[in-house]
Amino acid sequence: PDIKIIFYLSQFLSQGIINIYHYIAVHPELSTHGSFVYPPLAYFFFGTIFPVLKWLAGSGFTDWLGMGNDAVAVPHLFRYLFLLKLPVIAAHLAVGYCLSRLISQPRRQSLALLVWFFNPISIYAVAFMGQIDVLPVLATVLALLWIKDRPYLSVFLLGLGAAFKTYPLLLLPFAALLAARRFRHSLLLLATGLLPYLLFISPYLLTPAFYTDTLTSGLSQRILQIGLPIGSGESLLLVPVFLLFLLLTAAYLHRGQSHRFAAYCLAVTLIPIASSHFHPQWVLWSLPFVSLFLATQSFWSVALLFFGSFIGIIGLFPDKFLTWGLLSPLEPEILFLPSLVSLLPPVPVLLDLLHTIFFAASVWMVWRFFLTSHE
User: Fold this and answer.
1) In terms of pTM, does the model score above 0.85?
2) Cα–Cα distance for residue pair 145/262, rounded to 1 Å
3) What 3 state SS string does the chain have?
């Protein structure tokens, strides 16, 4: 459903609509399935390639995009699905190539690619769901690839990725600190990274729909939910505490040590996700760095806990479109079945236990990666 909404709304770019947030807000009848919740670069990217995909898909493609989530018994469905997922599959392959450039030892290179391509998160979020998060993931991996030799290009790519989906902004201050030894140089890097992001979002800052649907949605709210009560109705916000602790560590202990950026990428992307009720595709943000970690450390028991708990969490989601509803193109009748979790006996603590295992495995990988992130 998500990828259909993105392409359906992106088609309006070819009709001359630049501010999709305002347009849908004043014409809600044009999108009964939701608003455009991604930053502007995503709209321009998919809007630019839409005419080509429409031509390849043939007649009926646009009408199908506007249909409901259960519109699976239509002609040429598999052609439509393949074309929708083709850009993210191409980005997924490109990330694999970049990971191979980050590792010189052939055996470890093969392990990293094995983890990246053949794990339940990639198969689920990219192949099954066709989620677009792998495109900003490509920007973050390129930033890691070039942070030592081309630091300004590295931070620029992080800003560009944030203009597609906001989370690379979290990595930007760490890249600026780790790629430079002088404070002035770090400020220049930070400004360079913010430039493409601000360039894309500034025309929309006065649009109320952009503010409510994009800037204040998703992870920007989730990372503030986990807190430690300290009395009088007040709490310590634990994830911002963790991120600030990391930022101070980068500034005072690891300044100029760009080879540690991969460990920071894993920590900054994974811990906020693991400590929240995450969307499945968010784990893609951390997956390249998980792949690098497992290729160099080979802690496969931890990998089993990490990927196994992810499968369990997704399997217990009450939304059938996130479980066997994904198979409905093969058998439309499957949409009439109840969600998977409703067929299981009620075990109140099961989901909490799976989240706990996922969080513990995540923290352990981050800890080990920091201990071993040396030249």
Assistant:
1) yes
2) 10
3) CHHHHHHHHHHHHHHCCCCHHHHHHHCHHHCCCCCCCCCHHHHHHHHHHHHHHHHHHCCCHHHHHCCCCCCCCCCCHHHHHHHHHHHHHHHHHHHHHHHHHHCCCHHHHHHHHHHHHCCHHHHHHHHHCCCCCHHHHHHHHHHHHHCCCCHHHHHHHHHHHHCCCCHHHHCHHHHHHHCCCCHHHHHHHHHHHHHHHHHHHHHHCCCHHHHHHHHCCCHHHHCCCCEEEEECCEEEEHHHHHHHHHHHHHHHCCCCCHHHHHHHHHHHHHHHHHCCCCCHHHHHHCHHHHHHHHHHHCCHHHHHHHHHHHHHHHHCCCCHHHCHHHHCCCCHHHHHCCCHHHHCCCCCCHHHHHHHHHHHHHHHHHHHHHHHCCC
> Which residues in the chain land under pLDDT 70?
217-224, 374-375
pLDDT at res. 249: 95
**Pair of tokens at residue 126:** 């990219």
The Cα 193–Cα 272 span in angstroms is 22
Q: Is 255 helix (H, G, I), strand (E, B) or coil?
A: coil
Identity of the residue numbered 287: L
Residue carrying structure tokens 């479980």 = 323
279 neighbors 38 (Cβ within 8 angstroms)? no
DSSP states of 322-338:
GTGGGGTTT-GGGGGSP
Identify residue 81 by its one-letter amino acid code. L
